[in-house]
Structure formats: C-alpha cells, structure tokens
Specification:
CATH topology of the largest domain: Jelly Rolls
CATH architecture of the largest domain: Sandwich
Distance between the termini: 81 Å
Number of domains: 3
Largest sheet: 11 strands, mixed
Number of strands: 34
C-alpha cells in the first residue's frame, strides 16, 4: 500500500470514528430527553387515567377511551444570526418552539383493539433545512399497562427498538411491541412532540373532542406566548375555550368534555364536516421570507374570527405568492392562434387548458401548486382573448368548508369561466378540461371580488357543481377460459372515467403517458425524452426506464388489489388509454393472468365461482353496521363488471343457474343490478353497482347497506355448468 493510500485509509477511519461518535452522542442525548419527558408525564396528577370502572353500556364496543389529555405550549424566541456579523450587520433569527402532548387511556374490549395497540412505530426525531428556515422535531412515545386490579406496569425503554436512520442522520425511528397487554386491560399511552422552527410558520393544531371510540373524559390545556397571534375556530359544536392569562400575560386556553358517546366512523366520513373540532392557528410575526396573513398582523387572541377575515388572507396569499409560468416560447403564440382556431369560447378555453397541462408535462412540472395553475390558466386565457374569468376559492374534502375557513392555506383557488358556467382545477393532468377535481366537487365556494366595494362585503357562498354516478365509472372487463382443469385464464381490462380516473391515474401513469396523451391536439411536439434537449436525452431515457419499471409493478399491484387472493403469472400489463381529451375520457390498462381454485369438478359437471369474478368487494361487519353519523363518499359513482367465460365444448348453463345470477336491489341511494345469459358457448354476466350521491344522511345508512350486502351476497354465487 503506497503512502497516499495509507493516508486515505487513515482519514476514512477517522471520519467513520467521528461519525460513529456523533451518532452515539445523539442517541444518548435523545434517550435522556425521552426519559425526562416520560418521568414528567407519568408524574402528572390526572386521576381520570387511573379509572378502571367502565360503564356496562360500552361492553360491546371494541375499546373505550377512559381519559384523554391534550397539552399545547407555544413560545417565540429570538437569537443573534452570527452569519450577519460577516457583513458587519446585526440580524436576529426568530424561533417558534412548541410542545404537544397527546395522552390517552384506552380500555381494551376485544381482539381488534388488542392487535391495534400491541405495536407502535414512530419517528423519534427528524430535521429539515431549507434556504432561510429550518425545522427540528423530537417525538417521544410512552406506554403503561394498567391491569383490572389497578396494577401499573410501564413498558421499559429496553423494549424500544431503534430503526434505520434517515439520509445524513436527518431522521430516526423506533418500534415498540407492548408485552403483557390483554383484553380487559387499560393501556395508558402518550405521544410528545417538541418542534423548533426557525424563520418558519407553524402548522395549525387540530383538537378533536370525538374519536373512534366512546370517550369518558377529555381535557385540553394550551399556553401560548402573548407576543404571537392566536386564532382558533370551533367547528360542529366543539366547546369554546375558557380564556385566561398567566402572570406573564401569556394566553391560557382550557376546555373539557365528558361522556362523549358519538364516535367517528372509519368508513366514508369527513370529521371536519361533522365532528366537534377546534382548529388552533398560531402565527409568528416578521418571519423572513414567510407570508404573514393580514388577519394575524396584530398579536394576541382572536376567538372565532370572521370567515371573511381568513378568506381575505387566502386571497392575499394567492396574490402575493403566485408568479407567472413562462413555459415554452411557443405557448403564448399557440394561445393567440386559438382565437381563430376555436371561435367557440368554451372550446377555446378547453384547448388552452390542454395546452397548459401539456406544457407542465413537457417541462416536468409535477409539483406546481394549485394556486399557480389557476392564475396561469387565467393569464393564458387572456392571451387567447378570454378575459371574463374569475379566480374562485374552495376547500377540499377533509377540510372545513369555505364559510368556516380557519387557515388561509386551506383555501384552494380554481378558475371560473362565465361563458358556459365552467370551472377549471388542476390535478396533474388527470382531469379532462372542465372537470373539477373529485375533492372539490359539491364543495362550498366563493369568487374573488372585482373591486374594493365588493371586497368590503361578505362574499356570497355557492356550491360547486358535482358529477353524476354515470360520469364516474370503474369498468372491469374480464374474458376468461378454463385451463389446467381448475384454473381460469383471464384477460383483464380496467377502464375508469371522471373521479375514478383521477384516483387510478395517480397510481399508474408516468409523465410520458400524460405527455403523449396530448399529442393529438399539439402539433410539432418533440419525443418526450428530447424535450429537455438532446444532451439530456440519455439521462431522460434512463429516468423513463425506471418509471416504466415502477409502472409495471404498480399495474401488477392493481391486479392483485382487485382480488382477495393473489393471481398467478401476471403478464402483458400495459396502459392502453390515458383519456385526457373530451373525445376519450377513459384511462385504461390491461393484463393477463390466471386464478387458481375458480373451477371445481363435480362428476362430469363443473362448478364455477362466478360471483368471485367481482373481485374483493367492501364488507361492512360488526360495529360498522351500526351508524349514527352522516356518510361522505369520494363521489357518486358506478362499478360495472362485464364478465365473459368461455364454456368447454359440450357444457351448458341451465336456465335456473342463469336466474340465480340475476339480481336487482334498487333504492334512492343507488342500486345493484346483475344480468346473465348464455350465448355462443359463453356465459355472459353484467353487473352494475351504483352509488347515487356523494353525501348521504345517517338515516339512509340501511339503504346503503342493502347495496353493499347485495354485492357481497353475489360474490358467494357458484354456477354449475353441465355436460
């Protein structure tokens, strides 16, 4: 080994030793921090957490929340920016430091709850750095088991297992298996998060007073720095805070609830629309490079500010942060040329929408914000001679409605075209022009004011249009033949439109698929891999090859996800249609595979598991069948199955067997209708399941169950084909 090699080996060894030492020090530092937090939490005087008396009325519940406690603390500090001294100036860095304790005592009533709370997986700490700001987070988990006789056993830190570290030591995780937990026990668990933000705004805190299980008691306690701006909004009957201050004039907020019997369903439910929740939004001031909303420029407490104040924040945020997307030099020319090319305004607007989506795909802009797209579409439409447009604002499914807006960033812009009453949103080229994203449909919305006079008044609230069930279809076409005695060889095609297309597209499409889908409307376009220049073509091809490999795996996952049992020999998977145009709205893929156990021999006859051709369908069992909460689905929609099974020569299906496959369950919420026939040596089955509405009142739950149960019952049907 030469001298240079020895020096390099020595240097690498020293670096490795140093890195190992730093890693060990960080683990010890975190362990000491976590031990202190656990000691402090377990020492809290909260007698409700020792309660082992569970009301008999909850004996059939999977679990009961005996006690819940939430403690939020937020302070702001400043420090000298040492780098500013290099420029002979003095600059201060502003830090916001928060702690968030969530503690629950849960009584375990059945095996499902036992399984859920027997294992935990969490991130112990992570850090993020961006230009001008940073975020450092530590998280601690604590677990105690309380036996029916009151005996308390804390899970030892020796049981916590460190998981793989993140890139550059920026993330660490831990896993925990809870030993000795049994049905009938209480489990006392908490998560504690300490977050340090430098020159960066905080995410809001969401405080819910209802959970998936009945709750006997919950208390919330918040301490917030007096120099910060504190806004909160109570939603859906959430209790208002009792307000006070401490000796240093910091804001104190307290709330308490008892005997909460209502629960959050885990199926088709939006808590922000129905559950009692408080949104607590805390803002710092004079943060470098951060948007400070007008409503929070004065420190102190704002309880339930007007929705208009927060709507104005959203409008101002849109105005400040949106910039024009220049795009390719030909984009402006193409927009201007559309004036003569498309005399009809709505056709022209749809064409410009397609041009912009194509430009985003060409320029590899996959993460452009919704705000930028709405504004840039408005600019491009103006270049195409369409100026009668407005920016509107709504909130997405899973957020509070726009007329109860709590945080400005929740307001999402869209574009409104007066001609034809059309609305345009962006969903990475997964919507056809004029189709709203599924999570915007049927949502409350407002339009930006046209002048200062309108800006002074409350904005009229209206409801965005919603699609119909027939607009949103999943169509499964399965052509099957019997092979190897007991298997079905299946050619599988899945096509999707509307909101179903949007959901499927996020899973299986590559950027090239999207790009190519616009080529029938865009002239003189280069091949996808050459759009970034010939020098980058080779690297682009390598990236595309990896994307295609990933796509193949995702297509296989789609096929596997269709069935309860895994298919065999999945091959020939490919996307055959992207469907970004009004002429072809269907996204479709195909695959070939075999399914074992679908055919059984019964003497000379065969028994086909025909009902299973519908794949794995939703089952609603146990406590899920009892519901008092309203229902929120992704959209109205249809699932259509077209099944064709080639019968072996000499085999037939009797009239009675065909009649068994004909079902009709129809009510105001939707329907399940199946038809069957035998033609030209084939068994033909057509099934259509329809959900008519995006939202249903709780009173209609039993009617939805009729459709769900009819679908499940059909999957159990077996058909005898006789020789």
């Amino acid at each position: 080994m030469n001298r240079v090699s020895k020096m390099m080996l020595c240097l690498c060894t020293l670096l490795l030793m140093g890195a190992t030492g730093v890693y060990a020090d960080k683990l010890e530092e975190y362990k000491a921090f976590a031990d202190t937090i656990r000691q402090n939490v377990w020492a809290m005087d909260l007698p409700q957490f020792k309660n082992t008396d569970i009301p008999a009325k909850y004996k059939n519940e999977s679990a009961v929340i005996v006690a819940a406690y939430r403690d939020v603390s937020v302070t702001q500090k400043t420090r000298l920016d040492l780098f500013s001294l290099i420029n002979l100036s003095i600059t201060m860095k502003r830090n916001i430091i928060s702690s968030d304790l969530n503690r629950l005592c849960i009584h375990i009533n059945d095996q499902a709850a036992l399984k859920k709370y027997s294992e935990f997986d969490f991130i112990s700490y992570y850090r993020r750095n961006r230009f001008g700001w940073s975020e450092k987070v530590k998280q601690v988990l604590g677990v105690r088991v309380i036996k029916p006789d009151g005996t308390i056993r804390e899970v030892s830190t020796d049981d916590y297992v460190n998981t793989a570290e993140g890139k550059n030591d920026k993330e660490k995780g831990q896993k925990l298996a809870v030993p000795g937990l049994a049905i009938g026990d209480n489990i006392d668990i908490f998560t504690y998060e300490e977050k340090k933000l430098e020159e960066h705004t905080m995410d809001p805190f969401f405080i819910s007073y209802q959970d998936e299980y009945p709750m006997l008691w919950k208390k919330v306690h918040c301490v917030i720095d007096k120099d910060l701006t504190t806004q909160y909004r109570t939603l859906n009957g959430a209790p208002d805070f009792k307000q006070s201050t401490d000796e240093e004039k910091n804001i104190i907020l307290d709330a308490e609830v008892t005997n909460v019997e209502n629960t959050d369903p885990d199926l088709w439910y939006n808590p922000m629309d129905h559950s009692p929740i408080t949104v607590l939004n805390i803002q710092g001031k004079r943060l470098k490079g951060e948007f400070i909303p007008p409503s929070s420029r004065h420190k102190g407490l704002q309880a339930n500010p007007t929705a208009k104040a927060i709507q104005d924040d959203a409008i101002e945020f849109f105005r400040v942060v949106t910039f024009e997307y220049e795009g390719h030099k030909d984009l402006k020319k193409q927009c201007k040329a559309a004036i003569k090319q498309f005399p009809n305004i709505t056709d022209r607007a749809d064409y410009v929408y397609d041009l912009l989506c194509f430009a985003y795909a060409r320029d590899r802009i996959t993460d452009a914000s919704l705000r930028r797209f709405a504004r840039n579409l408005q600019l491009r439409l103006a270049q195409a001679g369409i100026k009668d447009t407005k920016i509107g604002y709504t909130t997405m499914d899973g957020a509070e409605p726009i007329d109860q807006l709590s945080v400005y960033a929740t307001g999402i812009p869209f574009l409104y075209l007066k001609e034809g009453e059309r609305y345009y949103s962006w969903c990475p080229s997964l919507n056809v022009a004029g189709e709203l994203r599924c999570d915007m449909q049927g949502r409350k919305a407002i339009l930006s004011p046209e002048n200062k006079k309108e800006a002074k008044s409350d904005y009229p609230v209206f409801v965005l249009p919603a699609s119909k069930a027939e607009d949103n279809q999943n169509v499964y076409t399965l052509n099957a033949r019997i092979e190897n005695g007991t298997e079905l060889a299946i050619n599988h095609e899945h096509s999707a439109t509307g909101t179903m297309r949007e959901m499927l597209g996020t899973e299986i499409l590559t950027l090239k698929d999207v790009y190519d889908s616009y080529l029938d409307r865009v002239t003189d376009a280069k091949p996808f891999t050459e759009t970034q220049g010939k020098r980058k073509a080779e690297a682009e091809q390598q990236t595309l090859d990896k994307a295609m490999e990933t796509q193949q795996e995702r297509l296989k996952d789609q096929v596997k996800g269709y069935w309860d049992e895994a298919p065999k020999n999945i091959k020939d998977s490919k996307v055959v249609s992207v469907g970004t145009s009004k002429k072809n709205r269907s996204l479709a893929y195909t695959a070939n595979y075999s399914m074992e156990g679908m055919v059984k021999k019964a003497g000379q006859n065969l028994i086909l598991s025909t009902g299973k051709m519908l794949g794995g369908v939703l089952k609603v069992e146990g406590q899920q069948r009892h519901r008092t909460a309203d229902i929120d689905m992704i959209s109205p929609r249809q699932s259509i199955w077209n099944v064709e099974i080639a019968l072996p020569e000499g085999y037939k299906v009797s009239a009675d067997a065909l009649e068994q496959l004909r079902k009709n369950v129809t009510n105001e919420c939707g329907s399940f209708v199946s038809k069957a026939s035998a033609e030209n040596g084939k068994l033909l089955i057509n099934v259509v399941r329809t959900y008519n509405h995006k939202h249903e009142p709780a009173a209609n739950w039993d009617k939805l169950l009729q459709i769900i149960d009819a679908t499940n019952a059909f999957t159990t049907i077996q058909t005898v084909i006789r020789k």
